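Batch manifest, entry 17 of 40.
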Amino acid sequence: METERQILEKLIADGKEAERKLKELEVMYSMGDRFMADGQKTLLAGIGNGKAVMIGLMDGCFHKLPRPVNDVYAITGGELRSLCGCGPVRYWDSRKKVKT
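Output type: structure tokens
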């Protein structure tokens, strides 16, 4: 019979495995991806110090002030929304080098 400790260790291991699988399913964005945001083509750019920003390709203006992100090559949906706030639609994936 399993001890309470063994049961808890198994639950923790199962939770970590589930967390890993969920992370694999999460859509990630990267510096260099291009989006349509507020009717304008934009570029997701890293500007150093762990910050990213959406830059309009026609006017070169920032959509919002630069925001901190954990990794400019693996930006989460939540981080992306904080950069734009408008639910941008990606049309170029810079890591896969394909239109989306």
